[in-house]
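Entry 14. Structure prediction run on the chain below.
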Amino acid sequence: MCTTCKFSALEKLGPDGRTGGETLIGHMRDAIAARGSDLPIATQACLWNCKRHCSVVLRDEARFTYFTGDHEPTREQAEAILDWFALHGESESGEVSFRQWPDRMRGHFIARIPAAPKP
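Output returned:
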């Protein structure tokens, strides 16, 4: 998850002085803890997607990776990201049928990247 993403398309920082990325990461951590999960969050300063704030890369070692952006830095969006990622993990390839996507995840996908081949 990008730590430096803007809070919105027009504002770098939110009312509390944090970036949108920092705010969304906080909501993700709270949502993961509330679910009793230990899903790790990797953070990165700038994912080079500055035109589409609050960028999140959804990946694991075995399936398609998805690059997403334009997320609202809210708890509701964090929940939608986690719901979608759970469906990703249930799929052998990481492909999730559009009909299954949480509404809040529609319009946020930028790229789908195949899993790296194992040596």
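The beta strands are 56-58, 65-68, 109-113.
Filed with the rest of this week's runs.
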